[in-house]
């Protein structure tokens, strides 16, 4: 019995490794935002320490159902105050390593969910 489609109708993360992510086989070496509605936005941060409240306000403007935050090589959490714009719009945020975020994004996007993944690619990964 098949439980999933052979091909997704949304963009998917087709691979990842230290310092890179491939979306539909196109390779990226910088932090980015990818969404199930076709978003591919460069996310201007090279490390977790570069993040600010403005980075999370940018995510709130995408009006997703849920945001998957890939926090780099290990799971880290942004300060709660930075999440206020997301909470005001009732957008959930899940934090996990970037590799786990890639896998989770594909599952949710494949289910037809309006999901955005904010993927931090640290240069030392």
Automatic annotation (TrEMBL):
Gene3D superfamilies: MTH938-like. InterPro entries: MTH938-like_sf (IPR036748), NDUFAF3/AAMDC (IPR007523). It comes from the Bacteria. This is Mth938-like domain-containing protein. It comes from Diaphorobacter aerolatus.
